[in-house]
Amino acid sequence: MSLLQIEGISKSFGGVQAVRNVSFGLQAGELLALIGPNGAGKSTTFNMVGGQLAPDSGRVRLAGRDITGLPPRAIWRLGVGRTFQIAQTFASLTVAENVQMALLSADRRIFAWWSRAAAHRRADALALLEQVGMRAQADRPCSELAYGDVKRVELAMALAHGPRLLLMDEPTAGMAPGERVALMQLARCIARERQMGVLFTEHSMDVVFGQADRVAVLVRGQLLAEGTPQQIRDDARVQQAYLGTGLVLEKSA
Ligand SMILES: Nc1ncnc2c1ncn2[C@@H]1O[C@H](COP(=O)(O)OP(=O)(O)OP(=O)(O)O)[C@@H](O)[C@H]1O
């Protein structure tokens, strides 16, 4: 059974059909990149999986369970984590405290007194930071970190509730090319180790073709193609769809 199964979802905004009858699946341990030119419906699809938007029709299943239209918090509780285009951390807290806050939330104790974050499951927080290569920076304030490191902390925070599926919305936006690949290599290792699925939207073709196991291409709200990076790169329809968008379907050296 697929970890995530999207079955014919559609969504319109007024007269604009943003997503039209889109179906695809994602297995545990797999990285699936959702790509497409601007306005193709990537964010809308993503938000229908995360619960920020309810589909007009179609179903979304997580390990067979119908999660269509559930609110984001309920979907998160069922094991769907999320990172954002602009990393969200508390700048005034240390790296470890940020992860401890995420652990508090996972333990349903987010309303506990803030000062207790520093005392909550520090060893578990440090273990998560070890996984993302940030253990040595545990006691630095997040405000002092380079942006690429903030993204790693955000990843550790997203892992705090042990998601089965991680949604990463343009995870490498704003990062230097080398850092982008490194972040997604890390996500890939963690996905394999935890048998966690990762669905991500991405504009950087280096990341897509270098790191994704499979790629789904949306164009004008419809699924145009789905396959391995090689199949997608060789697909004439995909090349045609990208013509004139300024994006190149080549992995740069
Ligand atoms: N809340 C909304 N209200 C009205 N129209 C919307 C809304 N959200 C998205 N759209 C429209 O739906 C279509 C798909 O948008 P969406 O943001 O899903 O595309 P995208 O592939 O994520 O684009 P980008 O790469 O530019 O982020 C676009 O035509 C967009 O203008």
From TrEMBL:
The keyword Manganese does not apply. SUPFAM superfamilies: P-loop containing nucleoside triphosphate hydrolases. Pfam families: ABC_tran, BCA_ABC_TP_C. Residues 4-245 form the ABC transporter domain. This is ABC transporter ATP-binding protein. PROSITE patterns: ABC_TRANSPORTER_2. Keywords: ATP-binding, Cell membrane, Membrane, Nucleotide-binding, Transport. It comes from Comamonas terrae. The keyword Nucleotide-binding applies. One of its GO terms (molecular function) is ATP binding. PANTHER family: AMINO ACID ABC TRANSPORTER ATP-BINDING PROTEIN, CONSERVED COMPONENT OF ABC TRANSPORTER FOR NATURAL AMINO ACIDS-RELATED.
